[in-house]
Specification:
Ribonucleotide Reductase, subunit A, 13 helices, mainly alpha, single chain, globular, two-stranded antiparallel sheet
């Protein structure tokens, strides 16, 4: 698959440490996806035509066309003077974000390239445009620090995970909506506490997160075209993806202690706030939300976090002891996930018209 935008590829960039980091395959790192493009090309949006056309008209208008450009609000960043621990975690955050945005760009562009359905092709042309801008903007911030990701190399070197279209819908819908919730929560916090804004990229998050919101709206509409996607056995798949996405975010965020300390946010508060926003938004299409206030919720997440730390420690130890430690920690992580997965859900009535506008 070769869907990289020329604007994102600088042939002079070598495979540096951040590019290697972006290509590393772990349970927590963003992945590149492929799917059954022929099945997606058969999607019929006639049952949702009015709201579909309204969303595509909004995307065609391109409200953020001029947003992803540096201006006078882009303050000078003293990378050399930044605390080393903060610098390492912030770069990890930027690389992970860049990889996730570029993953969407590649997938959406490939959907457009392989399709013939005009509705689907038009949608993914707009979405790949947006994700390319996002990835390029983050990479410019990394380039200032001298550690830009070689996105052209990433397209070729990153392994692709096959997901059936319905799994793409669940995973990508949640990725886009949780992205909105993360960005707007950070933006509102720094709006109230500007002394914690240690990098200018956070000033761009308000308009940026609206792109993520619109992309999530598109996947909500795609799921609305087929009622089977949110009923029957697929309810268990929805619960699985909700649990997996939320728990992955929890573990990843808790690995960036200095980053969140610099932002002035408590990680548990931040994650719960993001889960709460995402859960409220997801009522537009999912027939239930996770009970994030259940007595088992936080303890199980903390056990999963401890299990990942244990797996990392075992990996560094190596040898037979390391292998045994990794298996034990993996089993503990699996039991923690099972505890989360078996928490009863909170049902809700899905509206006939799923469209929402960003309100946070």
């Amino acid at each position: 698959m070769n869907a990289v935008s020329p604007a994102l590829h600088d042939a002079s960039e070598t495979v540096n440490e951040t590019t290697k980091l972006a290509t590393t395959e772990t349970l927590l790192n963003p992945r590149f996806y492929t799917t059954d493009f022929d099945e997606m090309d058969r999607i019929d949006v006639s049952s949702i035509r009015p709201v579909w056309d309204a969303l595509l008209a909004e995307m065609k208008a391109d409200p953020n066309k001029g947003h992803f450009k540096k201006n006078a609000d882009w303050d000078h960043v003293d990378w050399d003077g930044m605390d080393p621990a903060l610098k390492a975690e912030f770069i990890d955050f930027l690389v992970s974000s860049c990889t996730a945005e570029f993953s969407g760009c590649v997938l959406y562009k490939e959907m457009k390239r392989r399709g013939s359905n005009p509705d689907i092709c038009e949608l993914f042309s707009y979405m790949s445009r947006d994700e390319a801008r996002h990835a390029g903007f983050i990479n410019d911030a990394l380039r200032e620090a001298g550690v830009a990701v070689n996105l052209g190399f990433l397209t070729k070197a990153k392994k692709y995970t096959y997901f059936r279209p319905k799994f793409i819908y669940y995973a990508t819908y949640l990725s886009e909506k949780i992205g909105y919730a993360r960005y707007i929560t950070i933006f509102r916090h720094l709006e109230a506490h500007p002394e914690h804004r240690f990098h200018p990229i956070f000033k761009w998050f308000r308009e940026w997160c609206n792109d993520e919101f619109r992309h999530g709206e598109a996947f909500a509409l795609l799921m609305k075209t087929d009622p089977k996607l949110t009923s029957g056995i697929n309810r268990w798949w929805i619960k699985f993806f909700l649990t997996a996405v939320y728990s992955t975010m929890w573990v990843r965020d808790h690995a960036r202690h200095d980053f969140h300390k610099a932002l002035g946010v408590d990680i548990e508060w931040y994650d719960q706030e993001v889960f709460r926003k995402t859960s409220e938004i997801s009522k537009q299409v999912f027939p239930f939300t996770l009970d994030i206030d259940h007595p088992r919720w936080k303890p199980a997440l903390r056990r999963m976090e401890a299990a990942f730390i244990g797996m990392d420690d075992a990996k560094r130890k190596g040898g037979l002891a390391g292998w045994v430690g990794k298996m034990v920690a993996g089993a503990k992580g699996g039991l923690a996930f099972l505890s989360l997965y078996t928490i009863p859900v909170v049902p809700n009535d899905v509206p006939v018209n799923p469209r929402l506008e960003p309100a946070y």
